[in-house]
Amino acid sequence: MRVLVTGAAGFIGSTTAELLMSQGHEVVALDNLVSGRENNVPQGADFVQGDCGDVVLIRSLGTFDACVHFAALIEPGESMKFPERYFSNNVASTFRMIETLVETGIERFVFSSSCAVYGDQVEMPIDEDRAPRPHSPYGQSKLMVEQGLQWMVELGRLRAASLRYFNAAGGTLAHPERHDPEIHLIPIALDVAVGRRSHLDIFGSDYATPDGTCIRDYIHVSDLAEAHALAITALRQHPGLTVNLGTGVGSSNRQVVEAVKDVTGRDFDVRFVGRRPGDPAAAVAANGRARDLLGWRAQRSDLRSIVDDAWAAFQAMEP
């Protein structure tokens, strides 16, 4: 198959592009390099620098059997300050691309959605039938794309899967977790552990959770990549899918910090500061639908393995 992977210079996109290539697919890797890094793109992929909303560019790339769409702005806190950016980039640009891809005959579309569509839920774990109530413009932008895709599926215009994944983490030696700017807990904690940052801020210690800090369902990036590949195949049988990707196990911010200290063997300064706008208290996935419809299981996503792999990838990175 010929597959377009957008955001292919990012953490999850590059890992998925590499997996698809290992399975024999031809990959066109599209990224505007605003936050991605060209050296993340796997060797052998046809790299194109540009925006997914550039209709002329998308049309020039030719025809595809499938698209896996990762390209997006991803910071809930930033979206609370600049919501217009998130709706323009994450929604409008996405549908300009989809319109062009449909015109050129694409059949399958896999969308990188997010647990942020659920917002601040009380009962855990969260299954796909839970009513969405986004807590930030970021989450709302993901839900709006999902809803548009549902209409396209219903009207027979496209086969589409929306994968609502929880907290991507871990990394591989080829694809360490690194964002610009960095907002994710594990890579920031690793930076502090090696002295690249003076301390680690934990946003909120008064949540209604057992230790007062946010709880998240961490999932290894390699498991996420596998789910995207499986979703392309599953769309042969299912015209539309909405699936959670998570382990069903939550880890608090305090637990993650202790795991990083244990794996690295280094103590470091942790400071508790005010809550960050847009952050729910907890987000833990029910993942039965992913098992049943995709045949997917998280193989590498226990917290210790995630931090071990993140640390190994971190140490292998160039300074």
Give a summary of the structure in a few sentences.
The chain is α/β, with parallel strands linked by helices.
What average pLDDT do the residues reach?
A: 95
- The gyration radius over C-alpha positions equals 19 Å
Number of strands: 14
Q: What amount of the residues lies in strands?
A: 15-25%
Instruction: Work out the oligomeric state of the chains in this entry.
Output: single chain
What global shape is seen?
globular
User: Major β-sheet, in short?
Assistant: 7 strands, parallel
**Helix percentage:** 25-40%
* CATH superfamily placement of one domain: NAD(P)-binding Rossmann-like Domain
Note the gap between the termini. Answer: 37 Å
**Assigned CATH architecture of one domain:** 3-Layer(aba) Sandwich
Write down the secondary-structure element order: EHEEHEHHEHEEHEEEHEEHEEHH
Question: What ranges have pLDDT less than 50 throughout 5 or more consecutive residues?
Answer: none
**Secondary structure tally, helices:** 10
Strand order of the largest sheet: 3-2-1-4-5-6-11
CATH fold category name of one domain: Rossmann fold
**Can you tell me the CATH class of one domain?**
Alpha Beta
